[in-house]
What does this fold into?
Amino acid sequence: MSAVDTRTNHVVVIGGGISGLAAAHRLSRGGARVTVLEASGRLGGKLLAGEIAGVPVDLGAESMLARRPEAVDLARAVGLADRLQPPAVATAALWTRGALRPMPKGHLMGVPGVLAPLAASGVLSDEGLARIARDEELPHTETGEDVAVGAYVAERMGREVVDRLVEPLLGGVYAGDAYRISMRAAVPKLFEAARTHRSLTEGVRAVQAQGDGAASGGAGREVGDGGAGRAGAARPVFMGIAGGVGRLPLAVADAVRAAGGEIRLDTPVVDVRREADGWRIELGTGTVTADAVVLATPAHDAARLLGYVCRPASAELAAVEYASMALVTLAFRRPDVEGIAHGSGFLVPPVDGRKIKASTFSSNKWQWNADADPDLFVLRTSIGRFGDEDDLTREDAELVSMSLKDLGDAVGLAATPVESRVTRWHGGLPQYPVGHLDRVARIREHVASLPGLRVCGAAYDGVGIPACIASGHRAADEVLGTLAAGAEGRGGE
It folds into this structure.
């Protein structure tokens, strides 16, 4: 990380989600004077801490991959080390074929390496299991430069394993369609396994043999987490923060301010223009000048802001699609759920035709949530996925009723909640279709022609919290490098 002169270098970060705040934190530590401009009235993006019936909850992303270091390291750096907590319970289920069934072990993002646990779970029919077994007999299937996860796995193992196992797991991360999602971008370990092994089951077993959580697929939980985290024997796969992961961006913002940075809310950016000695950022209420800019906004906003200064990158960003969804958070009297809500929650395959796609039993999964009020039990459901968002036009009360109906069918819950909250995430999750990584490479190549401007966020290298933080760090490091090189050049004149 290069140090720059705080007296002369001003960097504006546009966007106050976790990616932008991570970039701002990195820039501040690297010596830059930082201003964060956030269009809305709050920080955090898809990380949002709130409460229901007096109990603190996450109303957005609620856990972060712990076996990738960026999120945990940042939490520690901003004073949250003593609030980091692994899930108290991490035993998820699948609600499919009319019953709650245990999540089978021995898979890589739903793709099995061994059949025995899958057969015992009852998730697949005998015909589905027999089709998977044929994978070991088939000749190798080429992946090419990229391939859709669902298409490739269905060709090797049949559609049933995709529809009932791969789809709900990928949907918990991307709220997307497994038959469109890029294997290379979303599950790189599976892509490498498919590329280098004759059979897919053989490749999955090879990945599992590597250990250290490789079988988790490397994807971080996002807004649509269905409680499918799996705890490892040595250290947890996922981590939360007491009081909610939504506390993380607030703590990062405090650290940025403590380092002399400025954070401005309710400050939408109208335009970004290159000037001879830097950048001019047009606001609705005035102008800000900067030596460098980090765009940490959703792809469509980045496309708008780059429309004048970099049309090729703008066109690529405008083509990025997003899924919308809603989270329904419900609080019950604990006696009303005794004997009903077990484990950390369950996922629901789209093929089963239910309204909810997942449910997380928050008071089971997070000890801090249970301790906040031992007399209450909090859970949440998620509704909506890419291409299936019609229900999101309904009133909040209807989404609550849909959730209660499915929870009744799944676990026999018949109680009335003490309180309910619906949080809508319109355009919440970027989609990673086949060719996504090539699109990202083109965007970065175009943007690299602009001195002192970089992009970061969930639309590029991963939707999980650690991936977003890494994206912010990358943008910050490149900007610091550009500023340092510029200072050296000026010194030699």
About this structure: Residues 465-491 form the longest helix (27 residues). Confidence is low (pLDDT under 50) at residues 2-7, 212-233. The radius of gyration is 23 Å. The first strand starts at residue 10 and ends at 14.
